[in-house]
Write a structure and sequence with these properties.
The complex is a heterodimer of chains A (about 210) and B (about 1000).
Chain A (H helix, E strand, L loop, with lengths): L21 H7 L10 E6 L3 E7 L1 H12 L10 E3 L6 E6 L2 E6 L4 H12 L4 E5 L4 E7 L3 H8 L14 E6 L2 E6 L5 E7 L3 H12 L4 E4 L1
Helix pairs in contact in A: 2-3
Chain B lengths: L25 E5 L2 E5 L5 H7 L6 E2 L6 E2 L12 E4 L7 E5 L9 E5 L10 H9 L7 H5 L7 H12 L13 E13 L3 H12 L4 E4 L15 E2 L2 E2 H13 L4 E4 L2 E7 L3 E7 L10 E2 L2 E2 L3 E13 L3 E3 L12 E3 H11 L6 E6 L5 H9 L3 E7 L7 H8 L4 E3 L1 E7 L6 E8 L4 E10 L2 E5 L2 E3 L2 H5 L5 E3 L4 E3 L6 E3 L9 H18 L39 E3 L4 E2 H9 L5 H8 L12 H12 L3 H4 L13 H5 L16 H6 L3 E5 L2 E6 L15 H14 L1 E5 L4 E6 L3 H8 L12 E7 L5 E11 L2 E6 L4 H14 L7 E4 L4 E7 L3 H6 L16 E6 L2 E6 L8 E7 L3 H12 L4 E3 L2 H10 L41 H4 L4 E8 L11 E3 L10 E11 L4 E9 L8 E5 L5 E7 L14
Parallel strand pairs in B: 1-7, 8-9, 8-17, 9-12, 17-30, 19-26, 20-21, 20-26, 21-22, 35-45
Antiparallel strand pairs in B: 1-2, 3-4, 5-6, 5-7, 10-11, 13-14, 14-17, 15-16, 18-27, 23-24, 24-25, 28-29, 31-32, 33-34, 35-41, 36-39, 36-40, 37-38, 38-39, 41-44, 42-43, 43-44, 46-49, 46-51, 47-48, 48-49, 50-51
The chains are: A alpha+beta (about 210), B alpha+beta (about 1000).
GO molecular function (chain A): sarcosine oxidase activity
Pfam families (chain A): SoxG
Protein name (chain A): Sarcosine oxidase subunit gamma
């Protein structure tokens, strides 16, 4: 096990948690446009987020054994397990984002560290620091065109792709886990700005926020 | 055609023809008068149909002006739109505004109104007193009077006005990417788009008009033996069915920027109403600014017809020949009854042929050529239209509408009238001096256009990845235009890795044309400077005489002439007048037009509303606001917020004043004093979540830290924390913060709030470029952790109630950290202090932060727990002499200047960032500005931050300034003002008196003291 301090930041007790959008729901509401809506927005809160840094070859072995997923070696690639609940996304040549169901991140980190032994790598838990906003509906691509500079046309952004790009005046990680769904991974402190932006930009389509 | 009487409805509307829907009628208002038009009309065509001659008063001379053109090049018919104050839009060209029901428009110019204009008198009387450069010459002095002059000039000039109420509409930026962007959907653009689209390339076609098709919509020519507009309709239908094609009508390419980045202004709802409509309960977006990143750009922007420059060519009823055809054939309006056409080329004949077919009277075609010959000339002759050759209209007669044309034989080379003058009664004069390719967009790239003698026009200079075709390239014959378009489309597709598919073009009539003659300014029997005004730039009231005068006054460069006369300024950007202006300058300077050259066209091609430019980046979305996980609590507690970078941090928490019945709250000074005392005497709490936090892992993490910080790290044990100081390579302090050793290979670095992102990049930069051999990784965990700082004598007791961590002073020492649970939540607690008091910084995963914070308050009442903001934090840290990077430092301050020699490890076994710079003579100089404390002699004085410090207040001005105040506050525990300052050689000046002369004439006295004002031995944080 590498000489790093691990720390399970979660607790089992029934302690109330607040997602990054908790303030936004109180402040900006959660509109329901009903049947006329062409856009759905849902926060996938409280997931486990780990940043993996290291050499692709050793990390690939570890995540295959521990998570049963191949480490995406190609730039801008996103891989998921069959359920879609666990994913690994390429972020930079030695950096990956792992997202798993909330609570799995610490056991996963522990197992990966055991597996990786004395190799040089880093695992950072960032679960409290970011959240996933899921967009779906026929207007999702248009909404993204208003929001991110990156080309989200299907020919350039097929399912299984993920990039880090500009979100209005903030940054975001944008991913396409399936034909119908887009995911934005946003920093906690920017989440309210991103939420308000998306509500404003999607107003013309009618937006349903699922809480 | 007096406008004061009730109009016969649409007296100039033709019974047949055009692309308007006569079955429906639309009402509109112009300058308070009610009129009617039809769907398919522009505001301009509807005004012409109603016989409205005067649309505006001119900019400088206040002369009545009417509609001249049918498109973007219209210089006069600039109107203000809007039914309500909030919906006001200035600078709309009536020729580009689709008519909708209840449209309300008025003139932008004309004070008090266009019909009876006060300024008209000035124009008539004062015209000759307003030569070019008038403003420069007249209003130069006294400078103080300019504001007064300007108010009246602006009012008189009147270029529209902005609304005084908030805009109810929303606007978007839209990021587009394509292989091929085609600008213009006329013959060339459609052919190019078709070729590119069939190859499978992603194509965007943008066209500024209400309907795509360009000149094909009003052409006399046939394609495949059918009217040309039918071919356009078929192509548009095919393109609309292609998944890889985006058609953007009503979309102007307004700017062409570097790297094929083109901005398109799409008016989505401007043709529907004053404000955007609501569909399915959702208000639509009014306009979009498309930010297109194109692989290849095809400019198919067509050509603008050049008017001839003759005397009084601005009287309403003087139109472009092509515009006359467009009004007749596209809008079913004849803009008059009796036409005289003055032309230098065959294309001009089209107006006369269309006019006659519309059942109106063509008085004569006046052709500047001695022996005109060509198919259209023959047609005109065959129809019995009178052709006067070798001649031109030299002057229009009439005041508010043309009443006659003065026609004479002219000698173009000698620039003189060479025969007798006849006067032909008419109400409309159409003129054509040939065509100028629309090269504006290409010019935006900085590419210089090239003059072509054969077409008497400039063709665009082209940068990489752009082509021009059709009219924009000086190609006018329809068959050639289509072929050129297809070729451009195929080339663009190939350049973006798409294989061309066959495009078969329809057959065209080959039109036999005679050569055009180069005629720009028409000679008058009087010299230009003494004859009636011949307008070159109608929008800016620039005359041929004005340009001639400018050349006589020594202006030779066309760029200087432009600025001196205002030719091609503003929203017009020289669409009609530029070439004629250059031709006049060329004549006066005895040069050729290419020698004179052209001025540079700039974005925007036509005005873009601020709404579209701003998009959604306005109001509360102007800039991101970053919130901590505790923001809701701060808001509910009534905190005032301070912007720190993009973060909103609680600044102070004003309470209701004790005993105040009206709910009056404390002043900032009162709140801060209360918060300061609470920390010094009991316990306070600060939301410190915004501090940057970087997780550093790897076997070389420790060495890396020692290379980026000035101080030493090899002995920092697990469980311990250390303050670190970071310099740039110039030896100047750039950041500071506490870094903790979590495990041998694992550290948590904190940075300043504002520096977080930049410091992470800084670490990556040095690791990736200079020290790749060090095994270490960095990740930002700023947002992952929420940080709550409890500080004050009661902090231990408070925390002890809700944690399982042993808080004993001997086992959990100052500068230790421990893990455990706080309020049931896993937490890392750091015993570090920025206040000088006993302090615990509690870090929990941000999603639990609110629970922990609220639990602290549940238990905190007994101890007088008081939330405090950044202002109190500043006072408390300054009392202890703790610096804030960016406040005590400004990029020119070394650690030694700050008196922090203890934080510099000159004897580390390897170099570190800034080390070498710190040994330079300048950084070792004794007289550098050094950080000291200042104690005002009068304790009631709080010195001004930024105040300059002098040693001798009686010194003659300029006094030598030896430093300035960097931080200054009132201290409740000292009951005195106090300050931190940098003073030259300050470390050697303890006890000396310095002076601070203020703007109001007072001079404050202060003593140089230690930077530590409170608890100098540091005992309170160690308890």
């Amino acid at each position: 096990m590498s000489n790093a301090a691990t720390f399970d930041t979660r607790t089992d007790t029934a302690i109330p948690v607040e997602s990054p959008l908790a303030y936004s729901y109180r402040h900006s509401g959660a509109p329901r446009a009903g049947d006329s809506s062409r856009l759905q927005l849902r926060e996938r809160a409280m997931l486990g987020h780990l940043i993996l840094r290291g050499g692709a070859i050793v990390l690939d072995e570890a995540v295959r054994d521990v998570l049963g997923l191949n480490l995406p070696g190609q730039p801008q690639a996103l891989v998921q397990d069959a359920s879609g609940e666990r994913s690994i996304q390429w972020l930079s040549p030695d950096e990956w984002l792992v997202i798993v169901p909330g609570g799995e991140e610490f056991p996963l980190e522990t197992k990966l560290r055991e597996h990786l032994g004395s190799a040089h790598f880093a695992i950072s838990d960032v679960s409290g620091g970011q959240t996933v906003l899921e967009l779906s509906g026929e207007a999702a691509q248009e909404l993204l065109m208003k929001t991110v500079i990156y080309d989200v046309h299907p020919s350039n952004f097929p399912v299984g792709k993920g990039v880090t790009t500009i979100f209005a005046k903030a940054t975001t990680i944008i991913r396409r886990p399936s034909e119908e769904r887009w995911e934005l991974v946003v920093r906690r402190s920017f989440a309210d700005y991103c939420y308000r932006w998306l509500l404003d930009a999607a107003a013309e389509y009618g937006v349903n926020v699922e809480q | 055609m007096s406008q004061s009487k009730q109009h016969k409805q649409q007296a100039y509307r033709l019974n047949t023809g055009g692309r308007i829907d006569r079955s429906r009628t639309l009402s509109f208002t112009f300058n308070g008068q009610h009129y009617q038009g039809h769907p398919g009309d522009t505001l301009a065509s509807a005004l012409l149909a109603n016989g409205v001659d005067i649309i505006n008063r001119s900019f400088k001379y206040s002369r009545p002006r009417g509609i001249v053109a049918a498109g973007a090049e219209e210089p006069n018919a600039i109107v203000q739109l809007g039914n309500s104050e909030a919906a006001q839009v200035p600078n709309v060209r009536a020729t580009q505004q689709a008519l909708f029901n209840d449209l309300t428009a008025c003139s932008t110019n004309g004070w008090p109104n266009v019909q009876r204009d006060l300024m008209g008198l000035v124009g008539k009387l004062g015209g000759q007193f307003m030569p070019p450069g008038f403003y420069y010459k007249t209003f130069m002095a006294p400078a103080s009077m300019w504001l007064t002059y300007e108010k009246y000039i602006r009012k008189a000039a009147g270029l529209g006005r902005s609304p005084m109420e908030a805009d109810p509409d929303s606007y978007d930026h839209f990021n587009q990417h394509c292989d091929v962007l085609v600008v213009g959907a006329g013959a060339a653009g459609l052919a190019a788009a078709l070729a590119a689209a069939r190859s499978g390339a992603r194509v965007i076609v943008a066209d500024e008009q209400e309907e795509m098709g360009g000149s094909l919509l009003d052409s006399r020519e046939t394609l495949g033996d059918k009217p040309a507009d039918q071919w356009a309709a078929r192509v548009l239908e095919e393109l609309a069915g292609c998944e890889n094609v985006t058609l953007l009508p009503r979309t102007t390419a307004n700017g062409y920027h570097d790297h094929n980045f083109v901005t398109l202004h799409e008016r989505r709802t401007e043709h529907l109403g004053d404000t955007a409509p609501v569909e399915n309960g959702h208000r639509q977006v009014r306009s979009r600014l498309h930010r297109v990143r194109a692989g290849q750009v095809i400019l198919a922007t067509g050509a603008h017809e050049r008017p001839l420059v003759y005397a009084a060519n601005d009287v309403p009823g003087n139109l472009l020949a092509g515009a006359v055809s467009t009004y007749i054939r596209r809008y079913g309006v004849a803009p008059g009854r009796k036409l005289v056409l003055s032309t230098s080329n065959d294309y001009g004949y089209r107006a006369a042929l269309d006019w006659k077919e519309a059942g109106c009277d063509v008085v004569a075609i006046v052709d500047a050529r001695e022996a005109p010959a060509g198919d259209w000339v023959d047609t005109a002759r065959a129809q019995g239209i009178k052709i006067i050759s070798g001649s031109a209209v030299i002057e229009a007669k009439g005041s508010s509408r043309v009443s006659a044309a003065r026609v004479a034989k002219i000698d173009i080379d000698a620039f003189q009238v060479s025969g007798p003058i006849q006067e032909l009664a008419c109400d409309t004069i159409a003129s054509s001096g040939g065509y100028s390719p629309v090269i504006h967009l290409a010019s935006h790239t900085g590419a210089r256009p090239a003059w072509r003698d054969d077409i008497l026009g400039f063709v665009p200079g082209l940068v990489k990845g752009v082509q021009a075709c059709g009219g924009a390239n000086g190609t006018y014959a329809l068959g050639d235009v289509l072929a050129e378009g297809v070729e451009a489309g195929i080339r663009a597709a190939a350049a973006t890795d798409h294989t061309a598919q066959a495009v078969s073009l329809p057959s065209t009539d080959y039109l036999q044309q005679g050569p055009a003659v180069a005629l720009f300014q028409v000679p008058h029997e009087k010299p230009t400077l003494r004859g009636p005004k011949q307008f070159v730039d109608l929008q800016n009231d620039v005359t041929a005489a004005g340009i001639e005068l400018a050349t006589r006054e020594g202006f030779e460069s066309i760029e200087h002439i432009k600025r001196y006369t205002a030719m091609g300024f503003g929203t017009d950007q020289g669409k009609l007048g530029n070439i004629n202006g250059m031709a006049v300058a060329a004549r006066c300077l005895s040069r050729s037009i290419p020698e004179v050259g052209t001025t540079v066209f700039r974005p925007n091609y036509t005005p873009v509303t601020f709404g579209a430019i701003v998009g959604r980046h306005c109001r509360d979305l102007f800039d991101p606001a970053r919130y901590t996980a505790l923001h809701q609590w701060h808001v509910e507690r009534g905190a005032e917020f301070e912007d720190v970078g993009q973060w909103k941090r609680p600044w102070y928490y004003p309470q209701k004043r004790a005993g105040a019945a009206n709910g009056e709250r404390e002043s900032m000074a009162e709140a801060v004093a209360r918060e300061c005392l609470a920390v010094r005497e009991k316990v306070g709490i600060l939301d410190a979540s915004t501090l940057g936090k970087i997780d550093i892992q790897g076997p070389d993490a420790r060495e890396f830290l020692a290379r980026v910080y000035t101080n030493k790290w090899e002995k920092l044990a697990v469980g311990r924390c250390r303050y670190g100081l970071m310099c740039k390579d110039d030896g100047m302090v750039t950041d500071d913060g506490v870094t903790s050793c979590l495990a041998d290979n694992h550290f948590l670095m904190t940075t300043t709030t504002g520096g977080a992102a930049a410091i992470l990049e800084w670490l990556e930069l040095w690791h990736q470029t200079e020290w790749p051999e060090l095994d270490v990784y960095f990740s930002s965990v700023t947002d992952h952790w929420a940080t709550m700082t409890i500080t004050g004598p009661e902090a231990r007791k408070l925390l002890g109630e809700i944690t399982d961590i042993d808080l004993d002073r001997d086992s959990f020492k100052f500068m230790d950290w421990r893990a455990g649970k706080v309020a049931g939540v896993p937490a890392r607690v750091f015993r570090i202090s920025f206040t000088g008091e006993l302090t615990f910084e509690i870090n929990v995963q941000a999603n639990y932060a609110m629970h922990v914070w609220q639990t602290l308050f549940k238990h905190g009442e007994t101890y007088g727990l008081t939330p405090y903001g950044t202002e109190t934090m500043h006072v408390l840290r300054a009392e202890k002499g703790f610096i804030i990077v960016g406040q005590e430092t400004d990029g020119s301050v070394t650690p030694e200047d700050l008196g922090m020699q203890w934080a510099i490890g000159y004897d580390k076994p390897y170099s570190w960032i800034g080390k070498r710079a710190l040994t330079r003579p300048d950084t070792k100089r004794e007289n550098r500005k050094q950080l000291v404390g200042l104690r005002p002699k009068d304790p009631k004085v709080v010195l001004e931050e930024g105040a300059q410090i002098v040693l001798d207040p009686k010194h003659a001005i300029p006094m030598p300034m030896v430093g300035h105040v960097t931080s200054s506050y009132y201290s409740p525990v000292l009951d005195s003002g106090f300050a931190l300052a940098v003073v030259k050689g300050g470390h050697q000046k303890l006890g000396e008196t310095v002076y601070l002369p203020m703007v109001d004439g007072q001079t404050h006295e202060a003593e140089i003291v230690s930077t530590i004002f409170y608890d100098p031995k540091g005992e309170r944080q160690n308890v």
